[in-house]
Specification:
single chain; alpha+beta; four-stranded antiparallel sheet; three-stranded antiparallel sheet
């Protein structure tokens, strides 16, 4: 059985999450319709307003919400929808202007009250969650600035630090902090997705830590071999030049111990001396031997 990705889990949960109250349904519907807008809406005074989108799951969620909303009692959603026969391309929604006006106004009021159900609806059309090999980021992309400002106001009210930019003519809001992303998902009542993301973050942390330890060990081994190699070369210089016995006892002993234990680390080497010393002292004595060996050559 194929495991769902975090993104697949998120959208399934977004579509099928249960409702808390009618007010939540109304606010989320308002967010969905704001997200479907292609430009700043002049509240329609004509008979019908037409909206469209390519995310089929958004209309599935809208259908689930509509019957429990204040507007579901007077107007059936299916008669307003036009879904392509092959389920590809844009789904269109043609709504009476007076109803669309009421929904959009409801959305503005929801935003002013800091209603996260409204932003959850906007998320359905405009949001995406990305999990590259390193880092996490959540993005909203909008076609017009009015909606961008509305969403930024929501984030500020929730003390979220977000970035904003323009990409390919669209306004983009970015949230990059993993813990803040989890918090926002819980505000959207996407609890399974939030848990999955935290689980993935823990696995990433453990994997990255293991990689760092392996890399650190490999680096230490390389440094140990390099140190041993040049110390052995220095020892051979003094043996060939028959200058070993002219050295101070501490340096003679260092050479003798290195010759006996060619793979020992500097720390281990220091502890093998008759008067144990720390790693930095061994390194200092090795540098002294290097200078003296260069003078002999």
């Amino acid at each position: 059985m194929t495991m769902k990705t975090v993104s697949e889990l998120m959208w399934d949960e977004w579509v099928f999450s249960p409702l808390s109250t009618r007010s939540d349904a109304d606010s989320e519907i308002a967010g969905i319709l704001w997200g479907l807008m292609s430009s700043f809406p002049e509240l329609p005074s004509h008979k019908y307003g037409k909206l469209s989108g390519r995310r089929l799951w958004v209309f599935r969620r809208l259908h689930r919400l509509w019957k429990d909303s204040r507007w579901g009692e007077t107007l059936e959603l299916p008669i307003m929808l036009n879904v392509p026969a092959n389920f590809r391309g844009n789904v269109t929604l043609q709504m009476p202007g007076n109803i669309l006006r009421e929904v959009l106004v409801w959305g503005e009021e929801s935003k002013k009250k800091g209603d996260w159900a409204w932003l959850r609806g906007v998320w359905g059309n405009c949001g995406s969650l990305y999990l590259p090999k390193s880092g996490y980021y959540l993005a909203f992309r909008f076609k017009f600035y009015k909606l961008t400002e509305m969403v930024l106001t929501m984030f500020r009210s929730g003390h979220f630090q977000v970035g904003k930019r323009i990409v390919d003519g669209r306004y983009e809001i970015l949230l990059r902090d993993q813990q803040k992303i989890v918090t926002l998902l819980t505000y959207f009542k996407l609890f399974d997705t939030a848990l999955k993301l935290e689980e993935k973050a823990i696995v990433r942390f453990m994997r990255d830590r293991a990689n760092r330890l392996v890399n650190c060990d490999a680096s230490n081994i390389r440094k140990t071999l390099e140190a041993a190699e040049w110390q052995l070369e220095i020892a051979k210089v003094f043996q060939n030049e028959k200058g070993l016995h002219a050295l101070p006892e501490s340096l003679q002993e260092l050479i003798e111990v290195r010759m006996r234990y060619p793979s020992a680390t500097l720390t281990e080497l220091g502890q093998m001396l008759s008067k144990p010393v720390i790693k930095s002292t061994v390194k200092f004595r090795g540098e002294k031997l290097r200078e003296m060996a260069e003078q002999l050559q």
